């Protein structure tokens, strides 16, 4: 009896064994299913926007390049890979371990976007127009991912419209040339711009508020940015890449000769954005012209979705990739916390400060001229204690003025004794910088005067100037919740950039148009309250080189401490000049306020900034080269 | 006399599962008072690799049979307790009757795909025909760390810091007057000077264990019941005056009952029930943080606490205060209940059908329910400025919050079997068995959609053995075994094995060959690797005029791999046992274990595919190994009894396939290296002059100065970069483990000694307390005293360690032979002396009383980079055993 029982049991087991081990996945989410429903396909699309680089995070996100530039000094100089990159001691292996290595992440974004493009036609719950629109958005995001790779690593492997071919032979994978990269990205943006709406209000999504999705303007503006970049010296036949970086097909990655007609493509692309007629510079009307100019400039950051913003997004929370404290403050709150001086807000500690180079670059209000034209050199590079001052600018490098009233956001503040170098500057200076001895723009504080004390044990960044561009005057930051409720839009591409790119391209292109170039440069200067360039610098007439220098200088000031400014320094190849210097600060350890305006370079304990020819590009990470062993490494690594 | 742990029983036991096995006597095991069984097995059984990574009471050791033999997801052996899969460390050592290791291809055949890495078969104690026998054991001990890190003290640290400041000409050294303020201790709030290791680690931990067992039986029923309690308190100097107790603690109640009932003359029922209630307590956030903070906080960073009772925290943005980590932030309370049920019914058909035929089934049901309660406190921390004024660091609050996590599983298995064991005539004997095993494990608290699927195995297996005159035998086994991890075409594997042996008098030899497989795919999230998945909780995005329109994110996650199959193993083994004069027994085992198709991370698909981490069936490893053991047992005429034993195991693994494309530099192929092989640069010493730097290959990791590490240029391109990284040293899992010892008994006295050790093991030490800080030195720049005193300085150019920097040195901190250390050690694992008087035996023992190793900074067994782990403990124990 028992034997029969066991035999039966064994038999039934044998028959059912396969079904016992068979797993039923019928209910799991499947790609085809997700992309055929309008709710879930939008979620897939929403996730794609995650691959926009974290430009707004100046420490752990891709905005870290601000700290690598000559415009800022960070407390985080000691953050491993950051320090090594800033000191030119970065290697391909460090790239693998670096939180700044975006290679894998961006290619992941490219795959997700391509997957979406190839499958979204399944979504029959949406009408065709909506599907076309969403496809164009994915195309825009994918192009942005390529752009983010391009600016960091130089030209990369273009995968085209399809998914990565699984049969690819690793040893045959190498990077496409710069021209191939640019042409492909631009053609993608052209395609996307045809289908994208003028504004998201046109997209037929009903009454749901969709600001922050890609628009026609965004695609055209990104195209203008990329074409301007491609026409610039680094990418257009520069000396250092001559005979360097030849890919497996025998093509040089970088053009071996300059082609100035690329500027014409750039200027046409800029003009296309301007011709949309959708955008205008932020301005403020009435009252004191000086204050109005400052307010107009401040609106760029403080007025969400202003008319100047062509492409932007809500600032995001830190993505936890690296090491940063206060991660619960939210994306917006954290940027602010890192900049507000110690004691002026909970968690605040001046981790990010403007450098003396940035402070010096702001123009004089009355003359409209930039006060410092350059520096003497010392053993570490530029010597910021020895600026070459433009005598016509009206800048006074030494001495004090009693009874000075701060012109912006400090009507309530008593008069101070101000250092002469800090007075008479343009409105943007006061909208962005708080020099030592000035009042921090928050009258709610008991004592808002910003004075760098003697703190021998503090390693907070002590430059002598605080950065306030992200801080709206009067904002109370007394508790954690004050930070976490903050929300702000990060204006990634704005009209001022297009104007200045347009001016630059018009000045550079073979069919040079000086009048138009000056016109567009003056639009940005005018909003900032500065005199037209041809009045401030009459000698600019007919001088292409001077106009180039002035456009570049204007851009640095306008985009102070924005990642764009760093990529400008790279494409102009001015970084080599700017980024070799000791860590100059005011003498924060001085016994008296009067003694603090001496410029010294031994108080900020970090290796001097160093920049060599190889630093124009990030190394291709070693982990990538172990797989595709024949991939061309960047020059100098 | 007690039998020793090590018996050269390679051949002695011819039971079905028991080839190439080494039973361990249970009583000897219970010598060693440890929180978990695994820790006490170090060096006891040849072929058993016990890696004790930490001394934390509730941590179990890593257990491997014949070392790590696969690059796949799991190199762990299968653990069988009373016939069904379980966990080694659930048991109390006293409950164990025997431990057998199934190492070769044929002995583990019946376990199918689960037995690929060997099987640890544990049998618990059963009752016998006797009046009730009661045993009571009580042990109490005190312990301390075998070795604690020795960090630079305040004076040494300030000297070190000042040196670095002066050397770099940046940052301000401490003026002599300020240094004196720190050192004289007159104003500890403003000028603290703290020995953190001494503040956090106490001198004495306590350990205790009590057990009662009753065993006996009648004709029809045998029983064994046992209850025990184990308790170990942590080594930390926990604050006493708090509303809660922050000390690390571990406690465990074990109950076990084995009942054997002869229902009829031929029908036997075994019921085995085991239940464990475990509790542990520790730091709320991470255990690691406390160890790390203790070694990184500088002596002058912050006072332990301010004199008025305020919690202190350095003002620096990344400052830490280990005292707060231990005492101020709350605690976690862990509780877990585990239960194992085994019901086995065996019908003997000898009198009904044919002699020697038995059939029956084993039903098992195991469960675990665990929970962790996190009681978190976020008190207000202060720092004091140079004027003696307090500033708060955070909002802070006094109340505690509570979060929790739960886990658990339910495992059910059914194993019907039919066996046939009969002798024909005087010389011929047949042993045969067929069985099926069906196992279903459910995660009660799955972490993801995929993990909610039950884990299922199914095995059909059979074996037959013929032996002649107890001298020659041959056998064969076959299993058909499958797992739900694979698609229909790859779900099952067929695994045959054969063996033959002969007893030649002085020597017994045996050879075996077998195939097996493994279905381990690694992380639970990557189960069913043939199936593509989506992540429905991918990053979301925010849109809208006011930023209130937040959309969920969905993205593709893992990509299904077609044709994925099980890892394969081919094992060949030759064993010999020599029965030498004077009762000396020696054994030798030689084996090879060839693995292929190991499921590993895809190292070939370029990241431009954008697929994230993928897995493929591409790994391969060749293992070759050797085990030797010897034993000498003798009872002398005067009643003196002696058992001496020793064993040594060596496994050499060689990776034969790893899926990595051919590298530009052939020496960078990982193929040919062993599992866990360390890679790094070869350090040639320290640069002694600028000339030397200028005339050496350019080192491209960072700034290079005099006193920095000089590396070897492997490819002759005059540049030191990632292409100069080569295999250096070994792995941090030892290739060789060994143990030896002796049991002695004379009249009422007994003494047992056990040594264990390992060899061919290295570790590349790293981390700021070793290679120098790169972050905020004032806050977290603590450094080992040995390094502070023996680093390169202009006056100490022939230094043991390179130059240190305020912001660290990328060049010097590269993984290299500069920081690679030999971590082999020899330990006196336990020593016990006992005296028996009547029903009582009193004993005194010591566990890990001394360790010999060339590495001195911390205990070489710790699995850590810079000593940041719970120290290995040495214990001194008093005990009493009562029998009546």
pLDDT average of chain B, as an integer?
89
Mean pLDDT of chain A: 89
Helicity range of chain A:
25-40%
Please report the total strand number of chain B as a whole number.
Answer: 41
Taking strands numbered 1, 2, ... along the chain, how are they ordered across the largest sheet of chain A?
1-3
Interface with most residues? A-B, 101 and 89 residues
Distance between the termini of chain A: 79 Å
Q: How would you portray this structure in words?
A:
The complex is a heterodimer of chains A (637) and B (884). Chain A is mostly helical and 637 residues long. Helices cover 39% and strands 8% of the residues of chain A. Chain A contains 23 helices and twelve strands. In chain A, helix 8 (128-153) runs antiparallel to helix 9, helix 10 (216-231) packs parallel to helix 17 (495-508) and helix 11 runs antiparallel to helix 17 (495-508). Chain B is mainly beta and 884 residues long. Chain B is 8% helix and 46% strand. In chain B, the strands form nine sheets. Chain B has a 22-stranded antiparallel β-barrel. A four-stranded mixed β-sheet of chain B has the order 4-3-6-5, with no helix packed on it. Residues 1-30 of chain B have low confidence and may be disordered. Chains A and B meet through helix 1, helix 3, helix 5, helix 6 and helix 7 of A and strand 19, strand 23 and strand 24 of B.
Explain briefly what this protein structure is.
The complex is a heterodimer of chains A (637) and B (884). Chain A is 39% helix and 8% strand.
Q: What does the secondary structure layout of this molecule look like, with pairings?
A:
The complex is a heterodimer of chains A (637) and B (884).
Chain A: H1 2-21, H2 31-34, H3 38-48, H4 65-68, E1 72-74, H5 80-86, H6 92-97, H7 103-119, H8 128-153, H9 178-195, H10 216-231, H11 262-275, H12 289-302, E2 309-314, H13 330-339, E3 352-354, H14 356-361, E4 372-378, E5 381-389, E6 400-404, E7 416-419, H15 427-432, E8 433-435, E9 465-467, H16 480-484, E10 489-494, H17 495-508, H18 514-527, H19 533-536, H20 544-558, H21 563-571, H22 575-578, E11 585-586, E12 599-600, H23 622-627
Antiparallel strand pairs in A: 1-3, 2-10, 4-5, 6-7, 8-9, 11-12
Helix pairs in contact in A: 3-7, 7-8, 8-9, 9-10, 10-11, 10-17, 11-17, 17-18, 17-20, 18-20
Chain B: H1 26-29, E1 48-51, E2 62-65, E3 78-81, E4 84-85, E5 96-102, E6 119-124, E7 130-145, H2 154-168, H3 176-184, H4 196-200, E8 205-217, E9 221-233, E10 249-262, E11 267-283, H5 287-296, E12 311-312, H6 322-327, E13 330-348, E14 357-377, E15 381-384, E16 390-392, E17 400-424, E18 428-443, E19 455-468, E20 472-483, E21 492-503, E22 507-518, E23 534-543, E24 549-556, E25 567-579, E26 584-601, E27 615-635, E28 641-657, E29 679-680, E30 683-686, H7 690-694, E31 698-699, E32 709-711, E33 719-720, E34 726-727, E35 736-746, E36 749-759, E37 762-764, H8 768-771, H9 777-780, H10 785-790, E38 820-822, E39 825-837, E40 840-853, E41 873-883
Parallel strand pairs in B: 3-6, 12-15, 31-33
Antiparallel strand pairs in B: 1-2, 3-4, 5-6, 7-8, 7-41, 8-9, 9-10, 10-11, 11-13, 13-14, 14-17, 15-16, 17-18, 18-19, 19-20, 20-21, 21-22, 22-25, 23-24, 25-26, 26-27, 27-28, 28-35, 29-34, 30-32, 35-36, 36-39, 37-38, 39-40, 40-41
């Amino acid at each position: 009896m028992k034997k029969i029982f066991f035999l039966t049991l064994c038999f039934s087991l044998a028959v059912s064994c396969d079904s016992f081990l068979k797993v039923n996945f019928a209910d799991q989410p499947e790609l085809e299913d997700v992309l055929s429903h309008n709710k879930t396909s939008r979620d897939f699309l929403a996730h794609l926007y995650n691959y926009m680089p974290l430009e707004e995070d100046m420490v752990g996100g891709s905005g870290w390049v601000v700290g690598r530039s000559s415009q800022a000094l960070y407390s985080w100089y000691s953050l491993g890979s950051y320090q090594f990159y800033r000191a030119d001691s970065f290697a391909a292996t460090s790239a693998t371990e670096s939180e700044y290595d975006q290679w894998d992440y961006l290619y992941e974004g490219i795959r997700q976007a391509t997957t979406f493009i190839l499958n979204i036609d399944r979504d029959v719950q949406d009408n065709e127009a909506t599907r076309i629109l969403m496809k164009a958005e994915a195309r825009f995001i994918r192009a942005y991912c390529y752009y983010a790779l391009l600016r960091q690593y130089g030209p990369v492997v273009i995968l085209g419209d399809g998914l990565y071919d699984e049969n690819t032979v690793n040893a045959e994978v190498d990077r496409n040339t710069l021209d191939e990269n640019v042409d492909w990205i631009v053609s993608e943006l052209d395609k996307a711009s045809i289908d994208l709406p003028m504004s998201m209000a046109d997209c037929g999504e009903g009454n749901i508020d969709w600001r922050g999705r890609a628009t026609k303007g965004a695609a055209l503006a990104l195209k203008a940015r990329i074409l301007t970049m491609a026409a610039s010296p680094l990418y257009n036949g520069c000396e250092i890449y001559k005979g360097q970086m030849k890919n497996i097909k025998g093509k040089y990655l970088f053009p071996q000769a300059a082609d100035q007609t690329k500027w014409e493509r750039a200027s046409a692309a800029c003009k296309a954005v301007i011709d949309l007629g959708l955008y205008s510079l932020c301005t403020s009307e009435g009252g004191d012209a000086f204050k109005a100019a400052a307010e107009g400039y401040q609106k760029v950051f403080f007025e969400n979705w202003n008319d100047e913003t062509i492409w932007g997004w809500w600032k995001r929370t830190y993505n936890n990739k690296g090491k940063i404290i206060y991660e619960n403050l939210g994306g917006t709150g954290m940027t602010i916390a890192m900049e507000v001086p110690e004691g002026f807000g909970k968690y605040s500690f001046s981790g990010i400060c403007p450098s003396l180079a940035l402070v010096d670059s702001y123009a004089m209000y009355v003359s409209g001229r930039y006060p410092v034209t350059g520096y003497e050199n010392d053993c570490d590079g530029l010597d910021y204690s020895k600026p070459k001052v433009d005598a016509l600018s009206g800048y006074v490098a030494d001495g004090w003025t009693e009874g000075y009233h701060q012109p912006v956001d400090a009507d309530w503040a008593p008069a101070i004794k101000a250092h002469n170098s800090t007075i008479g500057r343009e409105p943007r200076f006061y909208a962005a910088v708080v020099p030592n001895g000035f009042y921090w723009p928050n009258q709610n504080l008991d004592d808002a005067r910003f004075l760098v004390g003697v703190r021998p044990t503090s390693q907070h960044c002590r430059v002598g100037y605080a950065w306030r561009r992200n801080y709206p005057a009067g904002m109370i930051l007394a508790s954690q919740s004050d930070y976490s409720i903050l929300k702000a839009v990060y204006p990634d591409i704005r009209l001022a950039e297009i104007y200045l790119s347009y001016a630059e391209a018009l000045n550079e292109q073979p069919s040079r148009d000086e009048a138009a170039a000056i016109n567009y440069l003056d639009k940005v200067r005018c909003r900032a309250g500065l005199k037209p360039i041809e009045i401030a610098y009459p000698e600019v007439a007919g001088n292409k080189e001077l106009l180039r220098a002035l456009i570049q200088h204007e851009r640095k000031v306008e985009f102070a401490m924005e990642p764009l400014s760093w990529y400008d320094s790279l494409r102009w190849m001015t970084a080599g000049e700017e980024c070799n210097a000791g860590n100059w600060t005011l003498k924060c350890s001085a016994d008296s306020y009067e003694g603090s305006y001496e410029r010294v370079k031994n108080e900020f304990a970090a290796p001097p900034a160093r920049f060599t020819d190889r630093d124009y590009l990030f190394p291709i990470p070693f982990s990538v080269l172990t797989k595709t062993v024949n991939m061309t490494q960047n020059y100098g690594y | 006399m007690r039998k020793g742990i090590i018996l050269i029983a390679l051949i002695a036991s011819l039971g079905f599962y028991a080839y190439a096995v080494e039973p361990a006597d249970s009583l000897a095991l219970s010598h060693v008072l440890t929180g978990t069984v695994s820790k006490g097995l170090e060096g006891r059984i040849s072929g058993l690799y016990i890696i004790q990574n930490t001394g934390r009471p509730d941590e179990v050791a890593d257990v491997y049979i014949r070392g790590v033999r696969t690059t796949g997801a799991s190199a762990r052996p299968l653990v069988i307790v009373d016939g069904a899969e379980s966990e080694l460390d659930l048991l109390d050592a006293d409950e164990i009757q025997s431990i057998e290791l199934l190492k070769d291809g044929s002995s583990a055949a019946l376990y199918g795909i689960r037995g690929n890495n060997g099987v640890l078969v544990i049998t618990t104690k059963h009752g016998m025909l006797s009046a009730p026998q009661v045993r009571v054991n009580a042990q109490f001990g005190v312990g301390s760390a075998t070795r604690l890190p020795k960090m630079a003290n305040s004076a040494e640290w300030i000297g070190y810091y000042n040196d670095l400041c002066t050397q770099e000409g940046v940052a301000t050294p401490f003026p002599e007057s300020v240094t004196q303020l720190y050192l004289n201790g007159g104003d500890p709030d403003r000028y603290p000077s703290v020995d953190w290791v001494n503040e956090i680690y106490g001198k004495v931990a306590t350990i205790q264990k009590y057990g009662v067992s009753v065993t006996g039986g009648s004709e029809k029923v045998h029983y064994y019941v046992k209850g025990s309690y184990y308790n170990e308190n942590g080594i930390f100097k926990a604050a006493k005056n708090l509303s809660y107790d922050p000390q690390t603690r571990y406690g465990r109640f074990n109950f076990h009952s084995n009942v054997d009932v002869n229902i009829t003359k031929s029908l036997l029922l075994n019921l085995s029930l085991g239940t464990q209630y475990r509790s542990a307590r520790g730091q709320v956030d991470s255990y690691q943080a406390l160890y790390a903070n203790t070694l990184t906080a500088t002596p002058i960073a912050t006072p332990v606490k301010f004199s008025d009772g305020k919690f202190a925290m350095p003002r620096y943005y990344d400052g830490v205060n280990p005292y707060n980590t231990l005492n101020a932030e709350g605690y976690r309370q862990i509780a877990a209940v585990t239960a194992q049920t085994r019901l086995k019914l065996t019908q003997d058909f000898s009198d009904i059908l044919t002699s020697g035929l038995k059939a029956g089934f084993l039903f098992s049901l195991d469960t675990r329910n665990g929970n962790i309660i996190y009681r978190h406190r976020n008190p207000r921390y202060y720092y004091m400025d140079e004027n003696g004024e307090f500033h708060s660091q955070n909002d802070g609050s006094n109340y505690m919050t509570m979060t929790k996590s739960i886990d658990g599983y339910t495992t059910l298995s059914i194993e019907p079997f039919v066996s046939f064991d009969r002798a024909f005539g005087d010389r011929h004997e047949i042993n045969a068995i067929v069985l099926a095993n069906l196992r279903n494990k459910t995660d009660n608290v799955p972490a993801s959609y995929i993990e909610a699927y039950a884990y299922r195995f199914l095995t059909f297996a059979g074996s037959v053995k013929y032996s002649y005159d107890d001298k020659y035998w041959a056998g064969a086994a076959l299993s058909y075994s499958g797992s739900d991890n694979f698609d229909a075409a790859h779900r099952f594997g067929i695994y045959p094995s054969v063996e033959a042996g002969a007893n030649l008098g002085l020597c017994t030899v045996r050879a075996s060959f077998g195939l097996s497989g493994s279905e381990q795919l690694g992380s639970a999230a990557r189960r069913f690797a043939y199936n593509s998945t989506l992540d429905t909780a991918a990053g979301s995005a925010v849109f809208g005029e006011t930023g209130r329109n937040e959309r969920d994110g969905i993205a593709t996650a893992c990509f299904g791999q077609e044709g994925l199959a099980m890892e394969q193993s081919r094992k060949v083994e030759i064993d010999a046992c020599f029965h030498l004069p004077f009762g000396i027994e020696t054994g030798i085992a030689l084996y090879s274990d060839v693995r292929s198709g190991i499921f590993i991370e895809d190292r070939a698909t370029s990241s431009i595919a954008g697929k994230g981490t993928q897995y493929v069936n591409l790994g391969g490893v060749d293992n070759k190994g050797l085990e030797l053991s010897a034993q000498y047992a003798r009872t002398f005429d005067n009643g003196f009894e002696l058992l001496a034993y020793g064993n040594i195991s060596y496994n050499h693994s060689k990776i034969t396939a790893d899926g990595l494309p051919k590298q530009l530099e052939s020496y960078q192929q990982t193929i040919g290296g062993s599992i866990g092989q360390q890679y790094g640069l070869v350090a040639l010493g320290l640069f002694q002059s600028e000339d030397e730097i200028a005339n050496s290959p350019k080192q491209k990791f960072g700034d290079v100065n005099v006193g920095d590490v000089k590396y070897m240029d492997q490819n002759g391109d005059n540049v030191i970069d990632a292409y100069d990284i080569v295999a250096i040293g070994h792995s941090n899992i030892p290739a060789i483990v060994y143990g030896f010892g002796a049991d002695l008994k004379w009249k009422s006295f007994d003494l047992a000694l056990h040594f264990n050790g390992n060899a061919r093991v290295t570790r590349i030490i790293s981390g700021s307390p070793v290679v120098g800080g790169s972050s905020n030195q004032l806050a977290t720049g603590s450094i080992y005293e040995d390094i502070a005193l023996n680093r390169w300085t202009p006056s100490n150019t022939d230094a043991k360690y390179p130059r240190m920097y305020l912001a660290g040195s990328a060049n010097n901190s590269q993984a290299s032979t500069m920081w690679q250390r030999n971590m082999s050690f020899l330990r006196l694992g336990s020593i016990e002396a006992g005296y028996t008087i009547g029903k009582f035996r009193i004993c005194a023992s010591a566990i890990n009383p001394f360790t010999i190793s060339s590495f001195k900074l911390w205990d070489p067994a710790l699995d850590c980079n810079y000593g940041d782990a719970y120290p290995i403990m040495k214990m001194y124990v008093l005990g009493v055993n009562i029998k009546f």
